[in-house]
Amino acid sequence: MTHSARLPPQGAFNLQDAFAEEGCPVCRIVLQNVQRLIESTNYDALGDPAIRAELTEATGYCTLHARQWLETAFILGTATLYRDVVMRTIRELRGLSGRSPIGGRLAAALGGSRGRGQTADVGTPRRPCPACELRDESETALIRTLVAQLEDDATRAAYEASEGLCIPHLRRALGVSGGSVAFACLRDRALRTEETLLAHLNEIVRKHDYRNRQEPSGEEKGAAVRTVIHVAGASGIDRDRAG
Ligand SMILES: [Zn+2]
Ligand SMILES: [Zn+2]
After folding, report:
1. Residue 166 CA, ligand 1 centroid: distance in Å
2. Segments of the chain with pLDDT less than 70
3. Secondary structure (DSSP) of 195-220
4. Ligand with an atom nearest the CA of residue 67
5. Structure confidence by residue, pLDDT tens digits, 72-100
6. In principle, which of 177, 211, 214, 221 could form an S-S bond with 183, CB 3.0–4.6 Å?
7. If we measure between CA atoms, which residue out of 85, 100, 239 comes closest to residue 172?
8. What is the number of alpha carbons within 13 Å of residue 212 lying toward its C-beta?
9. Closest ligand to 25 CA?
10. Half-sphere exposure of 195 (CA within 13 A, CB side)
11. 139 CA from centroid of ligand 2 (Å)
12. How much distance in Å is there from the Cα of 35 to the middle of ligand 2?
């Protein structure tokens, strides 16, 4: 069983709960799922060789999730998981000859690829980071669920009262909702969000003028930070991934 298969799919119930919270509901649930995966792996990996094999194939977590792992994990779970990764690296290093098995002009004609390829194989991930994989699967499932649920009047009303999606998740949701009631709902909610953010940013700039600096902060307080998160997605979402 893979890491991601051990967690239940997050459906409409969680999404509608997340509508009432601050920020993008998809970001919120996706990041909760990743955190739960890391926490459960911390316990389950000790007794489950399949989980350890999966992480060894991935050469451990990616840089982002390795940092998250270190913030969460126990030392025993870390040592157990990463011992396997280190043993794999030792096997790969011992398998290297230290020189290209074919030399001279023939190696040059072949681009020297065999010798360089061997070196490059040390520590090469043979499967995605399990936390990245779960994040991607969760996003796809949640966006499909959201778009389907927005056909329902009550869910649409709840979504319209929420903050709506961040831009990376909005782009994906619009992409799978073309022509539907959900599409209009997503677009209209997003327009209101953007217009509100723009008004708040304008207010921040206006109050920054020395003539207005004595005015107290209003609703625009925190809007600069909210806008950056809205545009990029929450930390850990990585808007630049394909798909
Ligand atoms: Zn989001
Ligand atoms: Zn990752």
Report:
1. 4
2. 1-13, 98-120, 242-243
3. HHHHHHHHHHHHHHSTTTTTSPP-TT
4. 2
5. 988 998 999 999 999 999 999 998 876 65
6. 177
7. 239
8. 10
9. 1
10. 6
11. 14
12. 11
